[in-house]
Amino acid sequence: MRHRIVSELMTTDVVDVRQDATFTEIAKLLAEHGITAVPVVDDTDRPLGVVSEADLLRKEASRLDPAGLLPSLHPESAERPKADATTAEGLMTSPAVVARPEWTVVEAAQAMERSRVKRLPVVDESGRLIGVVSRADLLRVFLRGDRAVREEITGDVLMRTLGIPPTAVTVHVVEGRVTLRGTVERKSVIPVAVRLCRSVDGVVDVSEHLDFKVDDTGSPAADAGYPRRAQLSP
C-alpha cells in the first residue's frame, strides 16, 4: 500500500514575506495571489510564523465603528499586541507549525488538527521553506477515481497483504464508498481487511458483507457447517 505524501500535494510556488513586511504589503499579496495566508521567513528562508487573513482582520475588528453604531471590541490582553502590530513580525502566529515533504496525508492532517491550522509550511531537512500544504490539498486524495481505489484494494490490500484472491472477495467502489462481498478463510481476517481498506487514500467509508469458513476468534461455536456470517460491524 502506498499513501500519497505531502511532496505530491503541496504548492511549491510559495508566496512568503520577511519579518519587516507591512500590513498593507501583506494584504496586497493575499489579494493579488488569491491566498488566505503567507509564511513569514527569515533571511535563510526558514519559517518563523504565518500571517493569515484572521490575523489582519483582528486589527480591523478592534477599530471603532465610524458611525458609532457598533460596540467596540476590546481584544484580550494577549491579543492586543497583534491588533496594534503593523508588520509581519507582530502580526504572525508563531512559532510556525511545519510539515515535512515525506509525511503522509494522515500525518499532515493530524498536525493541522492538533494545532488548529488550515495550512502548513513544508520544510526540507535543513528547515528551509520548500512549499505549503493546505486542507484543500489534502482533500485532493478523495478525488481519486473509484477504479484506482478498487484496484489498490484488490491488488495491494487483499491479494498482496492478506493473500485473498479476487475470486474470493469482490470489491465495489462508488464515490469512495467501498463494499466487500465474499468469503474469507478465517473470521479474524475480516476486521483487518476493513481497517486496511479504510486506510487507502480516497476511501470515504467501508462496509463488509463477508462470510468466513473458520472461526478462529475463540467465540462460541455456532451450528455445524459453513460458511458463516461474520457478526461484526464494519
UniProtKB/TrEMBL annotation:
CDD domains named in the record: CBS_pair_BON_assoc
Tree of life domain: Bacteria
Domain named CBS: residues: 10-66, 92-149
UniProt domain BON: residue ranges: 146-214
Gene3D superfamilies recorded: 3.30.1340.30, CBS-domain (3.10.580.10)
The entry's keywords: CBS domain
SMART domains: CBS
InterPro entries hit by this protein: BON_dom, CBS_dom, CBS_dom_sf, Diverse_CBS-Domain, UCP036990_CBS_BON
One Pfam family linked to the record: BON
The name this protein goes by in its record: CBS domain-containing protein
Species of origin: Streptomyces vastus
